[in-house]
Hints:
Layout: H1 3-14, E1 19-24, H2 26-42, E2 47-52, H3 53-58, E3 68-73, H4 80-91, E4 95-100, E5 113-116, H5 129-144, H6 150-185, E6 188-193, H7 198-213, E7 216-221, E8 238-243, H8 249-262, E9 266-270, H9 284-307
Parallel strand pairs: 1-2, 1-3, 3-4, 4-5, 6-7, 6-8, 8-9
Helix pairs in contact: 1-5, 2-5, 2-7, 2-9, 5-6, 6-9, 7-9
InterPro entries: FrlB_SIS, Fructosamine_deglycase_FrlB, SIS_dom, SIS_dom_sf
GO biological process, one term: protein N-linked glycosylation
GO molecular function, one term: glutamine-fructose-6-phosphate transaminase (isomerizing) activity
Amino acid sequence: MDAKSVIQQVKEQKNEIRQVYWVACGGSLVDLYPAHCMLMAESTLVESGIYTSREFILATPKKLGAHSLVILCSHSGGTKETLDAAELGLSKNAAVVMMTNHPGSPADSDQWISWIYPWGDNLKTCEIPSGISLSLAAELLAAQETFEAYGALMEGIEKMDEIVAKAKVRVRRELCDRFAQLCTKHPFLYILGSGASFSQTYGFAICSLMEMQWQHCAYIHSGEYFHGPFEVTENGVFYFLQKSSGKCRPMDERAEDFLKTHTDCLMVLDALDYGMDIIDPAVRDYLDPVLFYPMNCELRSARGKVFDHDVDYRRYMGKVAY
Length: 322
């Protein structure tokens, strides 16, 4: 399956798409956010909205209808809220595309277009949800209007595989041990980021650290940092900044400049220092998150080794009623 053929199929069904709704939960929602950001920034025709699945059901946009495309992701294939959201899209006569890692699961249904993706180490970016969703957005843009950065994005998706592989080695060598040791000294940390990369700021907090490491933390938008949260900045407080390489970088730089002089515990993961300089500036915003996710995984793994906390440990998820 490829994004171009999927969009062709959608266009055959609906002729014109005017709204795209990205719907998922947790880490799956994180993967869809950069594509949403790209549509919002690059399209003059299509409105884009992003929803956690339950909210899409409870606060359904009135424009959801025959000219809408609902793109969902359920990694397990059985996320009830996401399956219900897909059913809702169908009931409103929208085109529905569902991504899942599990063939034969409820998400892999003939009711909608199902895209089964692999999962594991060393997969190509084009094969996983972060790359698939960007490709779907790019193909829709190219099919309905002019998308001047189409070639740059597709080339960038290909380049990300080598960038990520090299960055993993460096992050293990340069950042992992320090991050893990700082977690032993600080029971709480703040994570900052901006733009499309804010998806990974959020994901690093709620998935990699809260869910998979039981680490107390909070995520803060680099721009919003100066509209309240910076008042708690002081020595002894741990801050981790995901410094993006695209248009939103000035917000991250401003936060970094302040943090350097107001706390004694700052770590920075700079996308430009870890390979994003070879990506066309026109699409760096959308591809930075592809870099940050595997780096987040390296950092959480390093913490897990120090704390003897496996990433699969759960005390509530799938174990109690909720």
